[in-house]
Amino acid sequence: MKLYCLSGHPTLPCNVLKFKSTTIMLDCGLDTTSVLNFLPLPLVHSPRLSKLPGWVSKDGTINLEKELKDCAGRVFVDSQPEFCLPERELLDLSTIDVILISNYHCMMALPYITEHTGFTGTVYATEPTLQIGRLLMEEVVNFMERVPKAQSATCWKNKEIQRMLPGPLKDAVDVWTWKRCYSMQEVNSALSKVQLVGYSQKVELFGAVQVSPLSSGYSLGSSNWIIQSHHEKVSYVSGSSLLTTHPQPMDQSSLKNSDVLILTGLTQMPTANPDGMLGEFCSNLAMTIRAGGNVLVPCYSSGVIYDLLECLYQFIESASLGTTPFYFISPVANSSLEFSQIFAEWLCHNKQTKVYLPEPPFPHAELIQTNKLKHYPSIHGDFSSEFRQPCVVFTGHPSLRFGDVVHFMELWGKSSLNTIIFTEPDFSYLDALAPYQPLAMKCVYCPIDTRLNFHQVSKLLKEVQPLHVVCPEQYTQPPLTQSHRSDLMLELQPPPMPYRRCSVLNLPFRRRYERVYILPELANSLVPSEIKPGVSVATVSAVVHSKDNKHTLQSVPKPPPVAPSKKRKRVMDEPPVVMTPKPLLSGAVPLEAFLATLQKHGITEVKVEETADGHILHLQAEDTLIQLEEDGTHIVCDNNEPLRTTLRDLVLRFLQKL
Amino acid sequence: MDRECVSLLPRVCEVLAASGSSLPDDTSLEKLLDWFTEVTKAGTSLLESCPCLLEFISSVVHNTTLDPSILSFTLRLSGLVAVTEDAFTVLQQSSVLDLVFNLQHWQEAGLWEDPCIRIGWIQGLRTMMQHPKALGFFVQADFLKPLLQLQTDKSLFVASAANQMLAHVLLSCQSVSSVESNGVDEEGEDVGRSSGSIADLEYPAITVETNQDYAAVVTAISECLKKSLVPRKNSQLHQSLQILKLLALLLAQTRAPLWEKLLQMVADSVYELLAAGYSQLVLPLMDVILAAHSCDANRRVTDQRVSRLLSFMLNIRKPADLIQAAAAFLRRGRHDLVHTAQSARVLLLPLDIITGLNLLTTTADEQQFSMVEQLKNKTSCISMICVCLTNTPQITLTAADCLPCPPVLIVTAVLSLLRLCSGDFSSSSSSSSSCRDVSRNIIGSSKVQKCALEALIALSGSPGVEVKLPEVVTLLVQYLDNPHSDPTVLHKSYQALVRWMSVCSDLSSITDQHRQDLLQVATKRSCDIRWEVRDSTVEFLGRLAGVSVVQTTAEEVSDASVALLGGCCFTTPLLRAALQDPESYVRASAISALAQTLAASWQQGAALTQEHTEIVNQLLEVLSRDTEGFARRAVVRYFIAWLSSRSSHSSPPPLASSSLLMPSVRSVLSRGSADLDWEVKVHTLELAELLLHEAFSGQRGYMKGNPTQTHPYAVIPDTLHTRTHNEEDVVGELNSLVQWGVVSALLSGLVDCDRPVALRACRLLMTLREVVCPLSLGALDATAAMAMVAKVTCELPGCGWAREIRKMLATKAKDAERGCSVGEVVDCDDCGEAGQEAASGGGQTPCVSVCEVLRSLDLDERLDVLTRSSDHVHNSPFSLLQDILTASSAHSQPDTQQEVIVDCY
Q: How many CB pairs under 8 A join A and B?
């Protein structure tokens, strides 16, 4: 069993598991942090960004004025932002049989994997994962295609040149593999390969393994996966949460008794408790509005935003923000808000019950009804005419490199009355803000990450007790910035197996058993004999028939009746010669009794030597060795066949025959 | 004793002696006993005033078929009756006593099995044992043996009562012996000779023999203590616990030589118990040792045994027990230096380990090691640290030479601990991995944070810690800013900040950065999602305004709010926003905080601002609109604060401020007295009282507070007479009181259905009456000036409280007429007229003379009614006795029982 690790990002995993002749890809997360190296894509012409000076090395030898721009003391690539893809050289992606998706954040690289690689398999995901994943992809494509950029910067990627570049660009890894965003056509094609599954539904893969998704409690439709055969069980835990937010609670008990548990997607903010962050979000929001400023919340169009809106729904009244408008701007805002309301079966119990009442599960419906929350596909159109300040704007993309958020940064960045509140944990807020410096706007970082923290995960692992745990290497040591915090790492016995990008792990357990079926007529013909109380053994001669990874023992076909005509006789048709099998031996040779028997047969000079597995008898006169071991007996007797036969028969006397 | 009750008692006794099953409820007997106890305590002899009791006791004791509860009651009653020597003698002579406390009697009747008989027996004896005769009776009857057996009774209540009884016996023996020895020899050496002198004292019964008996009792008890102290098996720990409690009680109360003797007897057993190392017994053992030790301290020379036990305790192996013991020792305070220093070291050890600061210069490696091991366990780590933190202030109170390190270092340790709690390891100087393992146990523990903040509050007063102020402020601001701080932790942080500000009045070390950070964090927290946090923040803003500090070296004194937050210009907008808070507690706190913030400007008589007018309007709005009582109460208190700060102000109030205050007060009085919440009404009356005081302080007859509370012969201080009795002044003031609505508020309060309101209003009206028209002056028209006072009128509208008042006046008028007809001299013509007029004047709002109303309302009688609690009738002994009789008659005539129940219903 092998695990190929194509992504080193702990929360955006992409691993391939080879298990029992199947090749299963577990998630295909897309590392988008690479976009932080690019200049923002303004929706409206920005004089500031268009007048940035190009970059020339200090000694003037490298001139990349066209590709790189100097902005706020840092160098950025002036090109369509590019993403860091999962590793594609580690194994042939066309051999992948299936892709299992655990949540909509972990499928953003799907088009890169399924298109143009020869992939012919199936993708399994739950319905909300597919639908919301599609929205997120559509949103990114839309953000990029809205602001087309003709040129594509490639010179800077030259290894020799990159070495000379300043700051983070110099240290960026695998820049050659970075790719521009896919097209909508590719998205559609990729998503057409998705087959929908429900929680606990069992999917057979070629009869060899069975996979089934379990609720993971992190987002709508998010799942962990169980991959099992008759005798082995692998659990894949990715992005799970034990908090009671909107999704169905996590199914923990089904993870019990795993041989291997692959653990990814723990919280990126182990020291930030989501409740505290939510409180921080609300108070900073209220503080800004009260002082007459605007609040900008860069966020994804699905996920935490539902909880934020729900929290605000309760908070609005208490903070007397009833008249402040809340805007949600995204090309998919409408669909996101509406989809969330229809996935009733994927919601937590509390919200499910609301479906039976005449009220929608999420309170944001009421906010929309009462006109407190308004959503628009973009800043253009209706929004510009209805826009009132002070207000709260939720919009993407959280990297601040593309999407409508870029416009608001340019618009509000200069006033200290305004506040930007980061809630998504995926990007370093300082890096995100880098091209906007100097910034007068207040900046608040309250990342809300509801995924498991180290305390919760160690409790979970204590309960489900997997034999082996595999996890990203980041989880096996405290974070670099807090090296004293030994509580911020996984401490397990045996220690977890760490992986990093491009690792290939031999998972530490051997397959020992295989299930083989026996046909009834064959079973009827067996004659078991009891070798010890409760254990009976029978020999069987049969033909193994293997199809779809199912093995069946069938009776040996009888020789066909002799053909009436011998004209067309062929060698192939000759029935195989059925040999009567030799009897099987069992039992052990008792040393004392054996020696006594040898003596009876005139062999007296026997030197007995004890070994690790049994004994060696040295018949000195005959220059012969007899090795008696637990699972075998060897008689080393050169050129004396009669003696060997005698000795053999003596040994056989002590053994049972089948 | 009430004559009525005495007359009922014989019949009640008959009922009880006949059958106990017909009692109204199971508390009746207890209530009856309570009443008897009260009567006895008042000095009345039960037997003399109720001779029927003797008969009752003797008849009940013979009738063992009675309900055990009646028998138990009788046992306890017998003890109560025999509490005086005379009654005891009477009971003994009638041979009742022997039978009542005869164990065999109860055992033969098969009643001893019932725990209520056993407890009755113990308590009866215990009550009786107030004089030597009873003690003699106890000794002669050899009750000690059964009493010792009862120590291990299966009923916990019986065992505990027996325990108490033993202590009582021992202490009685001691007091008798000491009386006996007092006359002769302090050391009590010559017992034989002393017997002669006893005859001269009040204890003629004591002879050499009885004295020996007492000695035997003491020996037997101490033997028993010694024997049962060390448990044979784990299940007997409870018994040891009981004995330890008893021992602690005895060692604290006994004197030499009994003390010596007790200690002598039990010291070894205590030592054995210590060595056994039962964690559950650490605290009770410590109590025993400390009881012995504190007794010891009075005698200057420390007893070697006690000292040895104490040293043993402070060196126990188990770290958790050790900390408990050290904490218990320090809590007692005032002890010998050696052990105090040792305890301090023990308690500082965990802090030393976690923070890595060298609080202790040397520590035994073994102790350190076992402590570290124990601290690695999360649960015990947190509880141990909390015990240590709770006791740190105690440590700093000890003498400087006992302290292993200066208080400043302890403050540093607490600060460092607080940083560790919030996951900040940057300042931690401990580098060993075991220490890191320990420190991670406390990350995010709000329990430790709370204890540490409390310690920080208490440490603020220690000498030399002021230098830590900037560091403390920085840390507290960080705590306030931390999104993960628990609301209670935030509350404590605010408290700590206020406390340090008030102790370290010199704020020159506070930087602008501190101020800015605090300003930001306070703004943020005032918008917090949790109302508790908003409440604490608002409260903090108010508290800070009440702390005066020296801001700069120029000795400029201001309040801490000004010094830290820039004062009103920052806090007032926040507080005004908080007035809109959806949570009523927050609104109430905001109003109080506003009062505290504005107090300074009121006192300085600052000119009125537009903002102030707006606030007052907002508050009046709250008073009339707010749905919750808290906020409305706070509004009334706000005006009380304003008014009192104005009246305490020496120079005359500026016109502007007054022009806003008085009309507002008028609204507050009218709205407040019509409020639904009784506390709002009581506060409103307090406001009215302030106005009364302002108007009449110095007037003859004016007595601040409750007029009925002053003794009739009390000397009235001269200051009260400084202002001469000037009727014109009185008329003027009374007129303004009427105009402000004070009189209406008082009158409406008088007829209020809430007793506290009515009571207060009644007292205030009486005060007013004493000033404007004292009853002692007789006729209203005694003087011309009085006539003027009498002309001051107030309105009585035709609804609500006024209708009640008018009814009362009308009734009074009718009574007066009737009274006149039988010839009583009541000079109250006008009053009658006014009353009638008032009663008949439906639609309009007729005016009545204030004086008339005051004099006609029978305030004294009303006060009398109001002072009694509402259940005084129901709870009287008379009603109890009646209930018992009624229940029994109902019981004897079953067909009427139903009726009674219906009646009760």
A: 59
Element (H, E) at A190: helix A184-191
Three-class secondary structure assignment of B79-96: HHHCCCHHHHHHHHHCCH
Is the ipTM value over 0.95, yes or no?
no
**Segment 394-433 of chain B within 8 Å of chain A by CB:** 423, 425, 428, 433
> B544 φ, ψ to 5°?
-60, -35
Where do the domains of chain A lie, and which CATH numbers do they carry? 2-267+451-506 (3.60.15.10), 274-445 (3.40.50.10890), 585-657 (3.30.310)
Model pLDDT for residues A10-49, shown as the tens digit of each residue: 999 999 999 988 999 999 999 999 999 999 999 888 888 8
Cα–Cα distance measured from residue B787 to residue B764, given in angstroms and rounded to the nearest whole number: 22
What distance in Å separates the CA atoms of residue A50 and residue A147, rounded to the nearest whole number? Answer: 14
* H or E element, residue A67: strand A63-71
Whether B583 and B534 have beta carbons less than 8 Å apart is answered as: yes
Helix or strand (DSSP H, E) at A238? strand A233-238
Q: Look up residue B577 and give its two tokens.
A: 């926003």
A221 contacts A127 by C-beta, under 8 angstroms: yes
Instruction: State which residues of chain B have pLDDT below 50.
Output: 181-205, 650, 655, 706-712, 714-724, 780, 821-843, 896-905
What pLDDT is attached to residue B314?
87
CA distance B566 to B575: 14
Quick one: pLDDT at residue B432?
A: 67
Question: Pairing relation of β-strands A63-71 and A74-77?
Answer: antiparallel
* In B767-849, beta strands by DSSP E: 793-795, 847-849
Bond from prior residue into A81 cis (ω within 30 degrees of 0): no
- Residue B718: the pLDDT is 46
Q: Look at residues B495, B414, B508 and name the one whose alpha carbon lies nearest to residue B462.
A: B414
By C-alpha distance, which of A83, A134, A106, A80 is closest to A301? A134
Q: At what angle do helices B52-62 and B85-93 cross, to 10 degrees?
A: 50
Q: Of A337, A129, A114, A292, nearest to A221 (Cα)?
A: A129
The dihedral built from the CA positions of residue B361, B366, B367 and B373, taken in this order, carries a sign that is: positive
DSSP letter (8 states) at residue A51: T
Structure tokens at B728: 């014109």
At B469 the pLDDT is 93
Which secondary structure element, helix H or strand E, spans residue B9, and what is its range? helix B3-18
For residue A107, the model assigns a pLDDT of: 96
How large is the angle between the packed helices B859-867 and B755-772, nearest 10 degrees? Answer: 150
Read out DSSP for B23-46? -SSTTHHHHHHHHHHHHHHTT--H
Helices (H), B65-155: 68-81, 85-93, 96-100, 103-108, 115-128, 132-140, 144-150
Return the residue of A nearest to B522 by Cα: A287
What's the rounded Cα separation, in Å, for the pair B527 and A312? 13
Are residues B749 and B681 in contact, defined by beta-carbon separation less than 8 angstroms? yes
Residues 6+ apart with CB under 8 A from B782: none
- Residues from chain A that touch B527, judged by Cβ atoms under 8 A, are 282-284, 286-287, 290, 319
- Going from N- to C-terminal start, the domains of chain B cover 1-137
- Among chain A residues, the shortest Cα distance to B583 is held by A318
Cα–Cα distance for residue pair B538/B522, rounded to 1 Å? 9
**How many Cα atoms within 13 Å fall on the side-chain side of residue B147?**
29
Q: Do B483 and A290 touch (CB under 8 A)?
A: no
Is the distance from CB of A36 to CB of A83 less than 8 angstroms? no
Whole-Å CA distances, B765 to B80, B517, B688, B703, B869? 46, 53, 10, 12, 20
Q: Mark the ranges of chain A whose per-residue pLDDT is less than 50.
A: none
Residue A459 to chain B, least CA–CA distance (Å): 15
Asked if B440 is an interface residue toward chain A (Cβ–Cβ < 8 A), one would say yes
